[in-house]
Amino acid sequence: MLTILTIVGARPQFIKAAPVSRALRRTARELLVHTGQHYDYGMSAVFFEELALPEPDYNLGIGSGSHGKQTGEMLIAIEEVLLSERPDRVLVYGDTNSTLAGALAAVKLHIPVAHVEAGLRSFNRAMPEEHNRVLTDHAADLLFCPTRHAVDLLAREGITRGVHLTGDVMLDAFLYNTALAEQRSTILDALGLQPQTYYLATLHRPANTDDPAQLQTLLDTLAELPLPVVLPLHPRTRQRIELHALAPKSKIQNLKIIPPVGYLDMLLLERRARLILTDSGGVQKEAYMAGVPCVTLRDETEWVETLDAGWNILVGADPDRIRAAVRDFTPPAEHPPLYGDGHAADRIVEILMARG
Ligand code: UD1
Ligand code: UDP
Predict the structure, then answer these.
(1) Are 104 and 139 in contact (CB under 8 A)?
(2) Rg of the Cα atoms in the chain
(3) Span 206-230, pLDDT tens digits
(4) In 3D, which of 142, 131, 138, 76 has the Cα closest to residue 109?
(5) On the CB side of 117, how many CA atoms lie within 13 Å of its CA?
(6) Is the CB of 38 under 6 A from ligand 1?
């Protein structure tokens, strides 16, 4: 039986891995390695519980640190696991330091690497994720692309072998969990919110959080929007706010800062929001899947098809552009499928099994 060793470590990877793991375990042996990059209950364990992800076979407990220290410690620890388990293949997701460490540890031991969410590019080399993706794609021999655009971008870098257009596993997760979210989540009641009467925001990119003046401006801008803003706060952002003793200057108590929420609560918050403001990659896509307009607090995005479809707009961290978008941005009636049919995981597993 084929043994696939999956490496995850950060919040979005638990969500992406869930549908693939479910499909994979029907036909192969999967070993799950959690690097420990994310470790708070609300950033990690809650997703294993809600998504019924199996307990990791290894939790490396690496935790936070500078890029070099974090990635280096992961590399050492993953190598040890690979040497003792000798899997047929390593499977990595997305673009975090856990992704790169997993890919690098594997190729150095001549273990083939499959990359889910291959071919994404922001063309902004100041983003740590951009290096992680480029290097991982060039290390992988199986590249699972969510979109045709991603396939084309790989071809521009000379990568054409082992490239498969599968659709996006985040759509699989979104569709699978939407009904559960509708049944189980009580987040709107808990926050005293009515559907369509609030905006949902997330904020965690270093470009937005690591400059205190920029973070302060963003908090002030969010706090003064016409409707309440729910902001489930990423720990990186919380840490920055505490470090610099930041708080929205506005007297208008419109900003509801809450701890990070689980996936089911997040899906419900997304689906009921009037509009979403975010610098997250995954949340931009989910806004589209939920049919909610998205205002992206960045200057560029990897998820360009949401822009082309007219459902997402880039505003950077500029208060005037944010306010104007919240006031005026209106997506078209058309909402074509951009991320496949919700069966990306099955396609990925089929290819993994055929490839061996
Ligand atoms: C990481 C990924 C990013 C991804 C994001 C998803 C990299 C380089 N970045 O960014 O691509 O979009 O995850 O959420 O891999 N912290 C906690 N508790 C936790 C986790 C983190 O308090 O459970 C705090 C620590 O202070 C840590 C900081 O958050 O230093 C940043 O965590 P880290 O994993 O380094 O990067 P993210 O910003 O989460
Ligand atoms: N998410 C969540 N709770 C939160 C914020 C985000 O469950 O409080 C989910 C979100 O629905 C999406 C994923 O986490 O599926 C996105 O992860 P994140 O924004 O941390 O990272 P990115 O996608 O930018 O890499």
Answers:
(1) yes
(2) 20
(3) 999 999 999 999 999 999 999 999 9
(4) 76
(5) 26
(6) yes
> CB 10: neighbour CB atoms within 10 A?
20
Ligand 2 in reach of 286 Cβ (< 6 A): yes
Question: Amino acid identity of 136?
Answer: T
Residue 313 three-state SS = strand
Number of Cβ within a 10 Å radius of residue 189: 8
Nearest-CA residue for ligand 1 atom 27 is 64
In the block, residue with structure tokens 């869930």: 18
Q: Which atom of ligand 1 has the smallest separation from the CA of 43?
A: 23
Pick the atom of ligand 1 nearest to 10's CA.
13
Rounded to the nearest integer, the mean pLDDT of the chain is: 97
Task: Return the ligand number nearest the Cα of 38.
Answer: 1
Q: Which two tokens stand for residue 321?
A: 């552009």
**Is residue 27's pLDDT more than 80?**
yes
pTM: 0.98
Nearest residue to 92 via CA among 159, 144, 53: 144
For 173, how many CA atoms within 13 A lie in the half-sphere containing its CB?
26
The answer to whether 23 touches 349, Cβ cutoff 8 Å, is yes
Q: Does residue 167 have a pLDDT over 70?
A: yes
Element (H, E) at 109: none
